[in-house]
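From the thread on structure requests for the teaching lab: each student submitted one protein with a one-line request. Submission from student K.M.:

"Model Valine dehydrogenase (NAD+) from Stackebrandtia endophytica, tokens only."
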Amino acid sequence: MGVFEAPANLSGHEQVVFCQDKHSGLKAIIAVYSTALGPALGGTRFYPYENEDDAVRDALDLSKGMAYKNSLAGLDLGGGKAVIWGDPVADKSEALLRAYGRFVESLNGRYITACDVGTYVDDMNIVAKETSYATGRSTEDGGAGDSSILTAYGVFCGMRAAAEHRWGTPNLAGRTVGLAGIGKVGRYLIKHLLDDGASVIATDVSEQARAWLTTNYPQADFVDDTDALISSDIDIYAPCALGGVLNDDTVPILRAKIVVGAANNQLAHPGVEKLLADRGILYAPDYLVNSGGVIQVSDEIHGFNFDRAKRRASKIFDITGQILRTAESEGIPPAVAADRMAERRMAECGRLRSILLP
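Reply posted by the TA:
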């Protein structure tokens, strides 16, 4: 797939950078979708893609999502994303991460990185040895720490807003939430849900995740796979692993009335949002409700304060409610309403950059 000939839903990027350091084994792609609102902020995904086309596609798709996410979150930041093509368990090394950091630095602030699937706080500490444009570092290194904390909190806020829109109350007591993915975000989200009185049914491909759930939250149930989860008698479905889980096969068997989760790019292709709406399933756009993490790491840019970042993340409740009401009043899917709001802010505020300052 040529970058300039990418499908319409992946096109429009400002810059795509291919990075290679043969000595360390680094193969990375940095995609900058938009800097209309400011430097492009987005995490680094370390993943063993099947081929280069898959890696490019993920970088393009995720970076566009970050532009919309940062816009809706009210941040003066554009959207970007990076992927490192490789196995994070076998291939990750200090030399590779530092080489990657130098490529980030070479963009001179157009792209600011953070953690994502396969990268962690300790990794960002290493990347930051070579660049001043790495966030998600440890608190000991002056960073914001694990961004999963406010990602999970933001998803919880979005879930409460969706529950209020559908059932008239934001309280989740008595509701059953199906959680797909007990990873960095899912583990924090479970606590919020149980503390609010919800019941949880979870699934994960990892046996270690299942053991963790059994040890820490024995009151939660576990099913073997995602198909079993989405066909279960659940009120809310929370995808918290990889994207593309809402598709032509899964939507028809989904029994939940609400979908709110942390996974990026949950809609497998354009049109899935209409399939959900036609079935009466309320979908809170993923890039809106999972923006707590980017709010957390963006606060690091100015000197991190957790309480301030959490207050900003709590506004996800209000924005989610606003988008759901707009979608209902205009007769459009919430995903369309969210896209329009994000695009409007990028256009209106980005236009101001044409006013040159001394």
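TA comment: The mean pLDDT is 93. The radius of gyration is 19 Å.
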